[in-house]
């Protein structure tokens, strides 16, 4: 099964800081996704990438950018963190096998103060 | 109208009970369907895919009705360990080869001793 690793479980950043969230997958998958999850709003797609240097905006890309320089790594960047970006951030890539669902990283809980 | 709608619950049931969750989706072009389970402060994990013919995995049965755009999950003989949030997930064609996942907000289940 694919393994998805997010570099930090918990982060606390100050308003205005530039924040990097890293995600690495070990199965050479083309597609990778960044979601945020908030109570009552569920998971919402921020950005996704379907190949190196290729990216597409999701439903809520404002205030975020992404980088995909290598196939295994997909980074989410908060250019200038704001308190409304306090959230749980989840990286995902398609799983393997018959079910072909998505596999998520363990998540990064970001607090912006 | 949300693309994927679920009853948020909470559902509080005694051990051994049978519980059913329902989900409706609005995009008739949706291609794949899943149920995910999410424990508190953890990432979502694939529980099972959902097929038109219906499928069963132990105590769990999933059904899909494409005509009604309706998905269900039945849990029989519920255990304390089934307590979690259950997410209904559908995929649609999005861009290139990347299929987008759209999540329901989740249904919270608590199984009581």
Q: Mean pLDDT of chain B, nearest integer?
A: 90
Structural class assignment of chain A: mainly beta
Low-confidence stretches of chain A: none
For the biggest sheet of chain A, the summary is: 7 strands, mixed
Report the span from N to C terminus of chain B: 37 Å
Which class best fits the helix and strand makeup of chain B? mainly beta
**What letter string, H or E per element, gives the SSE order of chain A?**
EEEEEEEEEEE
Q: Tell me the strand percentage band of chain B.
A: over 45%
Overall shape of chain A: it is globular
Rg calc of chain A: 13 Å
Largest beta-sheet details of chain B: 6 strands, mixed
Oligomeric status: heterodimer
The overall pLDDT average of chain A reads 92
Explain the overall architecture.
The complex is a heterodimer of chains A (113) and B (113). In chain A, 0% of the residues lie in helices and 57% in strands. Chain A is mostly beta strands and 113 residues long. In chain A, the strands form 2 sheets. In chain A, strands 2, 4, 5, 6, 9, 10 and 11 form a 7-stranded mixed beta sheet that branches. Chain A has a 4-stranded antiparallel beta sheet with strand order 1-3-8-7, with no helix packed on it. Chain A is globular, with a radius of gyration of 13 Å. In chain B, the strands form 2 sheets. In chain B, strands 2, 4, 5, 9, 10 and 11 form a 6-stranded mixed beta sheet that branches. A 5-stranded antiparallel beta sheet of chain B has the order 1-3-8-7-6, with no helix packed on it. The interface between A and B is medium-sized, with 31 and 25 residues.
